[in-house]
Amino acid sequence: MNWYDYVFWFISVIIIILSLLQGGKSEGASGAITGGGLNVFVKTKERGSELIISYLTLGFGIIFLFFALLCSVLTGAPAAAAV
Q1: Three-state SS across the chain?
Q2: For the stretch 56-68, what's the b/e string if a residue is b when 16 or more beta carbons lie within 10 angstroms of its beta carbon?
Q3: pTM, entire model
Q4: Mean pLDDT of 9-30
């Protein structure tokens, strides 16, 4: 394994942790059963730590995409077949 493989795994774990830290947008299972979560499409603003976690998740997602492409190019993975 090369250095970029370790970075790729590290970023993957960070994205998983950040995704788990994000708060739910609904009231949970009880709201789903009783119909309390009917305002699904209402705009709600994220504030404070929720906003920071959302931005971090987006940023690490972009970095993840970059390292996925980098690992693919550096390992010589075959691209789509040339016609």
Answers
A1: CCHHHHHHHHHHHHHHHHHHHCCCCCCCHHHHHHCCCCCCCCCCCCCCHHHHHHHHHHHHHHHHHHHHHHHHHHCCCCCCCCC
A2: bbeebeeeeeebe
A3: 0.65
A4: 80
| 26's tokens | 């609904």
Q: Which residues contact 66 (CB under 8 A, 6 or more apart)?
A: none
The domain ranges of the chain are 1-16+46-76
Q: What is the average pLDDT across 12-31?
A: 76
What does the pLDDT read at residue 4?
A: 80
Torsion-angle region of residue 24: left (phi > 0), alpha (psi -120 to 50) or beta? beta
Nearest alpha-carbon partner for 46 in 22, 10, 68, 66: 22
Question: For residue 24, what pLDDT is reported?
Answer: 65
